[in-house]
């Protein structure tokens, strides 16, 4: 709030918006470092357009790739009128050796309320750290509220204009919002809330714990969300808003993810401690609770959160799920309806390793692959429909896979026998180490 008071004092003693911007910049305790690409934006709203003067400081590259929104017209630079050029299929702008550049352009505005402008600044694409300061002077509306996706530094209303200032770390994608109905901002640490009445405590607590810097609660139907900037109708339920926001937050945390929609529903349910909405996510959520212990579930979610910044894939989800459970799985990749795992240990039958035969873990049971084990032990195994015939010497057995409490079970086309049932019917002994599972038989 001390910044707001400082700026307000300067304005009321007659300092112009443009001069104020540079006085504030000098006053700012964090001077722009050479390694930071600093954007200083002076914008003026005229009713039909936003006139922009875009100053860049700290440029270290000869050229920068840029995106020019379709709403942006008449881009020119102080050192070269046609400074934005197309090169190798990309738009680029050259930077003088001084590291400083000034651009001017105008942004066409659709005249309706509320005004909402997602893209209005020329955006620089670079791995160089960026920081943006924006001042906006509205010479049409001395009342009304402007809000932006950035930290509100100060605002003042004068008889002939209104003035707002924001700052933002990172690039300069800074959506703007305006409505004539005056919404006085209230400050809650790093969160600024624009609303006609105070938020209920549960809603305020949720937003204070989020990454949101600007929250607008409006009577319009407009809804827009980024991790730091949220516009919601005042008729929205908190539960729906929470789920929508957490999903936006997760999709930014795991950029460029190509996964099914139900995956986001599942992750949102975990983050919000609510039930999933989609049928598939409900099934998976249930399987996680039934198959994994609470500790294993927590390990899985911890592994997911530890990989923020990487794109999600079904394979990675299986790897994290397997690491939590201590076995291998293709549950997510194959979109199975039932959660199963395979032992990572090598199966050894009478000193013969069977690297392609795996013990299945299902419903807390160890299921041994029946056919490869029995054939390695010298048994003949044949199948006819639901019947399984086993022979060795003069001994014969017949089992049915569809019978109640079946000894031989079929899963995903493979026949298995449960560990405790195995020695009851055949002369085998089972043991295991950290590396291998041994089956010894006659």
Brief sketch in words of this structure:
This is Copper amine oxidase N-terminal domain. The protein folds into four domains: 2-178, Immunoglobulin-like; 183-233, no CATH class; 252-325, no CATH class; 343-441, no CATH class. The chain has ten helices and 31 strands.
Task: Describe it.
There is one protein chain. With 442 residues, the protein is α+β, with helices and mostly antiparallel strands. The chain is 24% helix and 36% strand. The strands form seven sheets. A seven-stranded mixed beta sheet has the order 4-7-2-1-10-13-12. It has a five-stranded mixed beta sheet with strand order 15-16-17-19-18, covered by helices on one side. The longest helix is centred in the middle third of the chain and has 16 residues, at 238-253. It starts with a helix and ends with a strand.
Which features would summarize this protein structure in a list?
442 residues; alpha+beta; Immunoglobulin-like; 4 domains; 7-stranded mixed sheet; 5-stranded mixed sheet; 24% helix
């Amino acid at each position: 709030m001390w910044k707001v008071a400082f700026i307000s004092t300067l304005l009321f003693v007659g300092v112009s918006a443009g001069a104020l911007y540079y006085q504030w910049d000098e006053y700012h305790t964090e001077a722009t470092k050479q390694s930071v690409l600093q954007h200083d934006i002076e914008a003026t709203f005229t009713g039909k357009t936003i006139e922009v003067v875009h100053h860049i400081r700290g440029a270290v590259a000869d050229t920068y790739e840029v995106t020019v929104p379709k709403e942006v017209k008449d881009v020119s630079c102080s050192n070269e009128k046609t400074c934005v050029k197309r090169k190798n299929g990309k738009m680029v702008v050259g930077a003088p050796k001084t590291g400083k550049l000034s651009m001017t352009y105008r942004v066409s505005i659709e005249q309706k309320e509320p005004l909402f402008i997602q893209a209005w600044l020329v955006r620089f694409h670079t791995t160089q750290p960026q920081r943006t300061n924006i001042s906006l002077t509205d010479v049409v509306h001395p009342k009304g509220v402007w809000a932006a996706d950035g930290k509100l530094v100060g605002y003042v209303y004068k008889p002939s204009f209104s003035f707002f200032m924001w700052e933002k770390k990172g690039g300069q994608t800074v959506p703007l919002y305006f409505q004539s109905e005056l919404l006085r901002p209230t400050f809650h640490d790093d969160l600024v809330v624009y609303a006609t009445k105070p938020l209920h405590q549960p809603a305020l607590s949720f937003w204070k714990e989020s990454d949101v810097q600007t929250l607008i609660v409006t009577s319009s139907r407009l809804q827009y969300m980024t991790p730091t900037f949220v516009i919601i109708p005042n008729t929205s339920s908190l539960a729906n808003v929470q789920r929508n926001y957490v999903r936006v937050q997760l999709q930014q945390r795991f950029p460029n993810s190509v996964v099914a929609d139900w995956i986001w529903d599942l992750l949102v349910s975990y983050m919000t401690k609510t039930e999933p909405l989609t049928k598939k996510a409900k099934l998976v959520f249930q399987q996680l609770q039934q198959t994994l212990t609470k500790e294993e579930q927590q390990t899985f979610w911890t592994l997911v959160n530890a990989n923020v910044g990487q794109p999600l894939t079904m394979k990675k989800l299986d790897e994290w799920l397997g690491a939590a459970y201590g076995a291998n799985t293709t549950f997510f990749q194959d979109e199975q309806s039932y959660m199963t795992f395979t032992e990572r240990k090598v199966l050894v039958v009478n000193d013969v390793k069977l690297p392609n035969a795996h013990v299945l873990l299902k419903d807390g049971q160890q299921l041994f692959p029946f056919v490869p084990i029995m054939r390695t032990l010298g048994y003949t195994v044949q199948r006819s429909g639901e019947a399984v015939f086993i022979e060795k010497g003069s001994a014969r057995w017949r089992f049915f896979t569809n019978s109640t409490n079946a000894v031989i079970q079929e899963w995903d086309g493979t026949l298995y026998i449960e560990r405790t049932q195995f020695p009851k019917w055949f002369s085998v002994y089972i043991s295991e180490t950290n590396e291998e599972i041994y089956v010894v038989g006659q």
